[in-house]
Specification:
By secondary structure, this protein is of the alpha/beta class. It is built from 35 helices and 15 strands. Strand 3 and strand 4 form a beta hairpin. It is globular, with a radius of gyration of 29 Å.
C-alpha cells in the first residue's frame, strides 16, 4: 500500500470517480460531526482573511483501491475507508456552489460544479466524481443536480442543509461578504490535509476494510505526552512518576487528565488549542526543557497542583468556601465545560493569594449571567466555547491594567467581539416576555433557571432539589382542552386566532413553573390546576394559584415580574461597553429556520412567530419585504394555503405558482388548495432542526410501573388517562398492543411530563439491543409519536435503511400518514388507529424488535435491509 498526504482538490483532480462499495454503511455524519469540521475549518478561514499562511487541518485518511477503468480512460477508485469524509466534503462544495448561484456568481459556481462535483464528459453514474452506496445515491444526486428534492430528509439532505445554512449565515454576517466565501472555498479546497492510502491491484479490499474497522484501543493524547516526558527523565523519572504523575492520573482518570493538559494550554494563553492536538502543542512548549530534568519535574508538579483545582471545578463540594462552592455548583449544574478555562484561572489566582473567595464567586456569577442572559435572548451557543477560551488572556490584560479581579472578568465579557454579546437588562426583559423559553437551551439549563427563580422567593423550608422529582410544567397546557381556547379567544387581537395566541404564549417563561405533579396537572382547566399548585411547597406555584384566571394578561404580568428578578439574579454587562445588536436575533433565527427546512415540508407564519418570539403578522411583513429569503415559499397560512401576498424575488425564473414548486418537492395539496398537514413543521420541529430543542435526546423517566404520586403507579396513571380521554375501542387496542410488546420480552417505561406517556422499550437486561423505543404514546392528546429523532442516533436505526423501512411499514397501516420529509423528526399519528388496526401495528412492533435483535447479534450490517416475514405489513 502507498500513502501520501494530499488535499481534497488534488485528490479529486481530473476525470475520476470514487465509488463507495455496497458493504460500506450509509452516510452517518450528523450535526455534531459536521459542526466540529466546520469550526475547525473556520479557524483556517480566519488565518486566510488575516493574511496569514494557514496551518493545514488534518482531516484524516482515506483508503482507496483501484477499480476498473471506465470508457474514455476515467479512473475509478473503490473507497475502502473514509467515505464519510469524502461525502461530507462533496456536500460542502455542493452547498458552496449553490450559494454562489444564489448570489449570481455563475463562474465560481460553474468552476466548482465542473472541477469537483462532476465528470462533464461522462454519462449516467460515471458523471459523478463520488458515487455513494445505492441507499444514499438518490439523495446525493438530488443535491448535485439541484433537483427539487435536494436537501430532503436523511443524513445526506441534512448535511447539505447544514452547509448551506452555515455559508448563508457566514456571508451575511457583519463585515463578511464574498471575500469570506472565497476564503471558505480556499480552506475546503487547499487546507484540509488528507492522507491518501492506495492499495495495489489484486489486494483483498474487503479484508483491508475489516482490518481498519477492527482496531484496538490507541494511545490517548495524554498517554503520548506522558511517554515523551518520562523519556526525557532518565534519572528522576521513577520518583516523579510515583510521587506526582501516578497520583494525578488516579485522581483525574484518563478523560479528565486529557482535559487538564488541554486547559493548561488554554489558561496559558493559547485560545486556539485543540484537545485533539494537545500532545503536539505541549511537546512543542516543553521541548526547550527536554534536557533539564529539574525544569520538567517542576512542570509536572505544576500540572499536579492544577489537577486538584480542576477537581474543585468538576466536583464543587471539594471547595471549602461555601459561597464559592455554591457559585461553582450552579455552573456545574448548567452543564458542559465552557466555564472551565475561566474557573481554573480564577482558582490559580485564589490559591496564589491574589484575591478572596468572595471575589472569585462574584467573577463566576458574571460568567453564569453571560450564559443565562444569552439563553434568554436566543443567542447561539456556538461562540461560547471560544469566548471562554479567550477570557484568560483578556482577564490577565485587565488585571495588568489595575482592575480588580471580578471587574476584570465583567469588563472582558462586556466587550463585544465577533459573536460575543452579553444582553442588557432591556434586551433580556424583551426576551423573557416574548421568546419561547421552553425551546431554548437544554432541559437541565431551563430547570436551573426556574430553580434560581424559586430560590429567590426565600421560602422558609427550601426544597431539596437533589431528592425532588420536579420537572418543568406548562400552566397553560401544550395541548389544551377547548375551555382554554375559549379563554384565549377573549384576549386574541384583531385577526389573531386563539391557536396563534396559544402558540405565542405557551412556551414563554411566564407560563412555566416547576412541579412534581405534572401527570396530575396534565391539560386540566385552570380551576383544577389551582388546587394542585396551591398545595405545592414552591412559592412561585402558590403565587400562580392565587390568580383568578390564567390567560395572556396573567402570563405577561408574571413574565414581567420574573424579568425584574432576573436583572438582580444575573447582573448584566457594564454600561457603555457593550454595543447594541445591529439586528434583532429573531431575524437570524427566521433565516436559520427557513434554511434548515427539508424539501417536502412547509410551515406557518404562526409557527415561525412562536419560534422567534414575535407575531405572525410581523413575520409575514418581514418575509413580504424580503422575497429573496431562502425557502420563503414554504411559509403558508395557518390553514395551509399560499398567502395572497406572496411574491417571488426579482429575477426568479422558476414556476410562478408556489404550489407547483412545493408539489415538485413532495408536498401534496387537497382540492381546496391546502397543503397536507402531515408535511407541516410545527414550532417543535423547527426548533429541533435548528438545534434549539433537546427533546430528541430525552429518555423516558424510567418508572416501569413503580409507585408515583399518591402511591399510584405510572402504569395505572397511564391506563387511567387513556380510558378517560380515548374511546373504549382505542384504549383496548393500545393496551392489547402493549401486552403484545411485553410478551415479546420488551418493557413499558413511562414519562412524567405534561401527561403520563408510555414508551414500549426493548429491555436492556435481556437484549443487546436494549434502550430502544419506536413510539411514545400520549393518552390525553391521543397521539403516538414515531421517535425517528431518537432512533437516528442509535444502532441499527442510525442507518437510514431500517428507519425508512419502519416508516414504510407504518404508512402501510390505514390511518397513518407519515411524511418522508420527517424522517429525522418525531411525526405522529392518532391513537385511534389502534382501535381497528391494532394487529397490524403489533406486527410493526414485532418487526422493530426483531430487526434490533438481529442487528445486535451481528445479523445485519450497516446499509443492509432487514429481513421480511415477521408479521408486519411489507
Amino acid at each position: 500500500m502507498h500513502a501520501q498526504e494530499t488535499t481534497f482538490s488534488k485528490l479529486v483532480h481530473g476525470e475520476t470517480q470514487f465509488q463507495v462499495p455496497l458493504y460500506q454503511r450509509t452516510y452517518t455524519w450528523q450535526s455534531d460531526e459536521l459542526r466540529r469540521l466546520w469550526e475547525d475549518m473556520l479557524e483556517v478561514v480566519e488565518d486566510i482573511l488575516a493574511g496569514k499562511e494557514p496551518a493545514a487541518h488534518f482531516l484524516g485518511s482515506v483508503v482507496l483501491a483501484p477499480g476498473r477503468l471506465a470508457a474514455g480512460g476515467m479512473q475509478r477508485w473503490l473507497v475502502v475507508d473514509g467515505q464519510q469524509r469524502l461525502t461530507t466534503l462533496m456536500l460542502a462544495f455542493t452547498a458552496l456552489r449553490d450559494r454562489h448561484r444564489a448570489r449570481g456568481r455563475k463562474k465560481k459556481a460553474a468552476r466548482i460544479h465542473d472541477l469537483i462535483l462532476v465528470n462533464g464528459y461522462q454519462e449516467g453514474n460515471d458523471r459523478y466524481r463520488l458515487l455513494p452506496t445505492q441507499a444514499d445515491r438518490g439523495a446525493f444526486v438530488a443535491c448535485v443536480e439541484s433537483l427539487p428534492t435536494a436537501g430532503g430528509s436523511g443524513n445526506i439532505g441534512g448535511a447539505y442543509r447544514f452547509f448551506l445554512a452555515a455559508l448563508t449565515e457566514g456571508e451575511e454576517a457583519e463585515g463578511a461578504g464574498e471575500a469570506w466565501v472565497d476564503a471558505v472555498e480556499s480552506a475546503l479546497r487547499d487546507f484540509l490535509a488528507i492522507v491518501s492510502i492506495t492499495a495495489s491491484e489484486g489486494d483483498n479490499v474487503y479484508r483491508i476494510f475489516e482490518s481498519i474497522n477492527n482496531t484496538g484501543v490507541g494511545l490517548s493524547q495524554s498517554d503520548l505526552l506522558r511517554n515523551y516526558l518520562f523519556m526525557c527523565l532518565p534519572r528522576r523519572g521513577e520518583a516523579v512518576y510515583r510521587n506526582l504523575w501516578l497520583p494525578m492520573q488516579e485522581l483525574l482518570g484518563p478523560a479528565r487528565l486529557e482535559l487538564l493538559v488541554w486547559l493548561d494550554l488554554v489558561v496559558g494563553g493559547d485560545s486556539r488549542a485543540k484537545q485533539s492536538e494537545i500532545y503536539r502543542d505541549q511537546k512543542k512548549r516543553m521541548e526547550p526543557l527536554s534536557s533539564d530534568e529539574a525544569a520538567l519535574e517542576a512542570e509536572i508538579l505544576r500540572l499536579r497542583v492544577r489537577a486538584d483545582r480542576l477537581m474543585r471545578i468538576v466536583e464543587p463540594v471539594r471547595e471549602g468556601d461555601p459561597g464559592l462552592s455554591e457559585a461553582l455548583q450552579r455552573l456545574a449544574r448548567w452543564g458542559g465545560q465552557t466555564h472551565y478555562p475561566l474557573a481554573l484561572l480564577l482558582l490559580d489566582r485564589l490559591d496564589a493569594g491574589d484575591c478572596t473567595p468572595e471575589e472569585v464567586a462574584t467573577a463566576l456569577s458574571y460568567a453564569e449571567s453571560y450564559l443565562v442572559r444569552r439563553l434568554f435572548a436566543g443567542n447561539s451557543t456556538t461562540g461560547n466555547n471560544r469566548t471562554f477560551m479567550e477570557l484568560p488572556k483578556e482577564v490577565e490584560k485587565e488585571l495588568d491594567n489595575g482592575r480588580p479581579l471580578a471587574d476584570a472578568v465583567r469588563m472582558a465579557l462586556s466587550t463585544k467581539t465577533g459573536t460575543r454579546v452579553w444582553p442588557s437588562d432591556a434586551g433580556m426583559r424583551e426576551a423573557i416576555l416574548n421568546r419561547p423559553f421552553y425551546k431554548s437551551g437544554r432541559s437541565n439549563q431551563r430547570f436551573e433557571i426556574l430553580r434560581r427563580f424559586e430560590e429567590s422567593y426565600g421560602a422558609r423550608e427550601p426544597v431539596d432539589y437533589g431528592k425532588s422529582t420536579l420537572t418543568v410544567e406548562h400552566v397553560l397546557p401544550q395541548q389544551p382542552a377547548q375551555q382554554w381556547f375559549d379563554l384565549l379567544a377573549e384576549e386574541a387581537g384583531e385577526g389573531e386566532s386563539p391557536e396563534e395566541l396559544h402558540a405565542q404564549l405557551v412556551h414563554t417563561i411566564g407560563n412555566l413553573t416547576l412541579s412534581g405533579d405534572n401527570a396530575r396537572l396534565s391539560n386540566h382547566p385552570f380551576r383544577r390546576k389551582q388546587q394542585i399548585l396551591d398545595s405545592s411547597a414552591l412559592r412561585m406555584n402558590q403565587r400562580i394559584a392565587a390568580q383568578e384566571r390564567w390567560g395572556k394578561a396573567e402570563i405577561l404580568a408574571r413574565a414581567d415580574e420574573l424579568a425584574e428578578r432576573a436583572s438582580t439574579l444575573w447582573p448584566g454587562p457594564l454600561d457603555g461597553v457593550v454595543h447594541a445588536e445591529a439586528e434583532w436575533v429573531g431575524w437570524g433565527e427566521l433565516r436559520q429556520a427557513l434554511l434548515t427546512m427539508p424539501a417536502g415540508t412547509w410551515t406557518t407564519y404562526g409557527d415561525l412567530a412562536a419560534l422567534t418570539g414575535t407575531h405572525a403578522v410581523t413575520i409575514g411583513n418581514h418575509i413580504a419585504a424580503r422575497p429573496a429569503l431562502h425557502g420563503a415559499y414554504r411559509v403558508l397560512t395557518a390553514d395551509g394555503k399560499i398567502s395572497p401576498g406572496f411574491r417571488w424575488p426579482e429575477g426568479y425564473d422558476g414556476p410562478l405558482d408556489p404550489r407547483e414548486v412545493l408539489e415538485r418537492e413532495g408536498v401534496p395539496f387537497d382540492g381546496w388548495g391546502r397543503a397536507r398537514r402531515s408535511h407541516r413543521l410545527t414550532v417543535s420541529d423547527l426548533a429541533s432542526l435548528a438545534g434549539k430543542d433537546d427533546s430528541g435526546d430525552e429518555a423516558p423517566a424510567r418508572d416501569a410501573g413503580g409507585a408515583g404520586t399518591g402511591g399510584e403507579s405510572a402504569a395505572a396513571r397511564f391506563e387511567k388517562l387513556l380510558r378517560e380521554n380515548q374511546t373504549p375501542e382505542t384504549a383496548a387496542g393500545v393496551l392489547a398492543a402493549l401486552r403484545s410488546w411485553v410478551e415479546l420480552g420488551g418493557t413499558l417505561e413511562y414519562g412524567r411530563k405534561s401527561e403520563t406517556s408510555c414508551f414500549p422499550t426493548l429491555s436492556s437486561g435481556s437484549s443487546r439491543a436494549g434502550g430502544l423505543w419506536p413510539l411514545a404514546l400520549y393518552p390525553v392528546s391521543g397521539t403516538a409519536e414515531v421517535v425517528f429523532q431518537h432512533l437516528k442516533r442509535r444502532p441499527p436505526f442510525h442507518d437510514e435503511v431500517p428507519r425508512r423501512e419502519l416508516m414504510a411499514r407504518l404508512n402501510g397501516v390505514r390511518g397513518i400518514d407519515l411524511a418522508e420529509a420527517k424522517l429525522d423528526l418525531r411525526p405522529s399519528f392518532p391513537l385511534e388507529v389502534f382501535a381497528d388496526r391494532g394487529e397490524e401495528l403489533q406486527g410493526v412492533l414485532r418487526w422493530f424488535a426483531h430487526t434490533a435483535e438481529l442487528a445486535a447479534a451481528g445479523g445485519i450490517r450497516d446499509g443492509q435491509k432487514p429481513v421480511q416475514g415477521d408479521g408486519g405489513p411489507a
